[in-house]
Specification:
It is a single chain. This protein is 35% helix and 13% strand. With 262 residues, it is an alpha/beta fold. The strands form 2 sheets. It has a 4-stranded parallel β-sheet with strand order 3-2-1-8, covered by helices on one side.
C-alpha cells in the first residue's frame, strides 16, 4: 500500500514536471509568434534619394517587360480614407490601425483622430489613376486585386483588365443569366455571412433571375474563372508589382509567386 502511494506520487510529480516544460515551450512559441507579427507590422521609410532610385528602377523594368501585371491589396486605398486590415496600432496612416489590429486589441476606431471615408464616398487615388494610365499606354496587362471597395472599377480601369478576386461591394450578379449590375450603392443585404442573395431580380423580362452579391467571405471559394485567369497572367508575366498587400490570404497571395521574372 505504501509502495503504491509512493509510485503514484512519483508519477504525479513526473506529469507535473512535463506539464511545466510543455507550458514553457508553448509560451516560448507564443512569444516568437508575437515578435514575428510585430516585425511584420513595422513600417519602413526610404529617404527621398533612395525612393527616387527605386522608382527609376521600377520604370526601367516596366519599359523592358513583355507582360507586366499589378497585384493590389487594401493598402492602396488607405490614402482614399479606407482603413486596411493589418496596420499596427502605431501606424502613421491617417486612417489609423487596421481593422483586425483594433479587434485584436479590443479597441474602437477614433473618428476624431483618424481620417476615414465610406467606400461609397471614396475617390480613386493617384495610385489607382496611375494604373489606369499604364494600362491605356499598353504597358500594364491587368490588375489582380484582393480589394472589394470598387475603386479600381470607379477609376476607369476596363473590366477586361481587372480581376477582383474577392468581389466588389457595388456589383451583383444574376444567378440565372450571369449578367452583372454595377450599382452606386453597396449591394449586400444579407445578415448571414454565407448568404448572398440581395432580394433583387434581373432586369431582363425574359430572365428575372435572383441576384447575388459578389463578395467572397472567409471560408468561401473564389470564382474559378477569375482565379484561373489571374494565375494565367501570373504564369505569363515577367514582371509583377505587389502594392498594398501583405500576401498572407490564400489562395490569392500565391499568384505573384508563379511569375517567372522579377
Amino acid at each position: 500500500m505504501t509502495l503504491h502511494s509512493k509510485h503514484a506520487a512519483s508519477s504525479a510529480g513526473g506529469r507535473g514536471w512535463l506539464d511545466l516544460v510543455w507550458c514553457a515551450i508553448k509560451r516560448r512559441q507564443s512569444w516568437r509568434r508575437q515578435r514575428r507579427k510585430e516585425k511584420e507590422k513595422k513600417e519602413y521609410f526610404d529617404s527621398p534619394e533612395e525612393l527616387d532610385r527605386k522608382v527609376q528602377q521600377l520604370a526601367d523594368w516596366i519599359r523592358e517587360s513583355k507582360h507586366f501585371f499589378v497585384f493590389t491589396g487594401a493598402g492602396i486605398s488607405t490614402s482614399a480614407g479606407i482603413p486596411d486590415f493589418r496596420s499596427g496600432i502605431d501606424t502613421v496612416l491617417e486612417t489609423g490601425p487596421g481593422a483586425w489590429e483594433l479587434r485584436a486589441k479590443g479597441q474602437q476606431r477614433d473618428s476624431q483622430k483618424h481620417k476615414v471615408t465610406s467606400t461609397l464616398k471614396a475617390i480613386p487615388t493617384t495610385t489607382h489613376m496611375a494604373l489606369v494610365r499604364l494600362q491605356k499606354e499598353g504597358l500594364l496587362k491587368c490588375v489582380v486585386s484582393q480589394n472589394c471597395d470598387g475603386l479600381h472599377r470607379r477609376s476607369g480601369l476596363p473590366k477586361k483588365a481587372l480581376f477582383e478576386l474577392h468581389g466588389n461591394s457595388n456589383v451583383e450578379k444574376c444567378t440565372k443569366c450571369g449578367h452583372e449590375y454595377l450599382r452606386d450603392f453597396r449591394v449586400r443585404t444579407s445578415k448571414k455571412v454565407h448568404s448572398h442573395f440581395t432580394g433583387r431580380l434581373c432586369d431582363n423580362p425574359s430572365c428575372r433571375g435572383k441576384l447575388k452579391d459578389t463578395i467572397i467571405n472567409f471560408g468561401e471559394d473564389l470564382p474559378e474563372d477569375t482565379l484561373e485567369t489571374s494565375y494565367g497572367h501570373g504564369r505569363k508575366a515577367d514582371l509583377c508589382l505587389v502594392m498594398g498587400s501583405s500576401l498572407t490570404v490564400t489562395p490569392a497571395c500565391d499568384i505573384p509567386e508563379v511569375t517567372d521574372g522579377r
